[in-house]
Amino acid sequence: MPIKHLFPESSYKPSSISINNRKWLTLNGGVTLVELLVVIAIFSIAYTMVGPNVRYFMAKNHLSATINYRSGMMQKSRLFAIEHATTVLICPSVDLSICNKDWSQHLIAFVDTNANGARDNKEAIIYSVQALDKSIMTKGPKSQVRFYETGISASPASFIYCIKLSNEDYLISGLYLSLQGRLRMSKDLNFDGVHEDNQGRNLSCQF
């Protein structure tokens, strides 16, 4: 009895498989080494041109988000003082307990019931924000921020925030607290690329 093949003889052509596979790879996503190097070169050029701008906008968004977060905490603390007819203190703290003068640390807000300018064990924290990451430098007032029941501040205060972009280039923003308890962000009013303080002087990160 003759042996029957699984495939018809006309369709079974082993010698043509490798050629067809090569064509399939070329037409369906296969690339040569030269093509790959060209693509890598294009991406390298694009990154060189766009990379600095991307880093700038990422740093700008990071700085704005940080300042907005801290500003929001201060605004809520002021409203708490008004709504509860009390005095609220805001200060930096490493351990969320003892106040210090390093405004890059955690910020805590609490009701200073005995008016001693420090947080005692029985004085609960009403609001807090986390410490700044190492990419942000800051300078703040030498004393705590204090809001009275009327919403006014014990004294005006300024906060400077900086992110280093290169050896001599910084991204700078300021946050200002008035005696009325109002907060505002610094602006680049003369469009020279640097924000100004309340007296119209360019902000500096040399502190």
From TrEMBL:
Superkingdom of the source species: Bacteria
TM regions (residue ranges): 30-50
InterPro entries the UniProt entry points to: N_methyl_site, Pilin-like, T2SS_GspH
Membrane topology of the entry: Single-pass membrane protein
Span of domain General secretion pathway GspH: 74-167
UniProt keyword Cell inner membrane present: yes
Chain coiled-coil ranges: none
Keywords, in A-Z order: Cell inner membrane, Cell membrane, Membrane, Methylation, Transmembrane, Transmembrane helix
Keyword Protein transport among record annotations: no
UniProt subcellular location: Cell inner membrane
Assigned protein family: Belongs to the GSP H family.
Protein name: Type II secretion system protein H
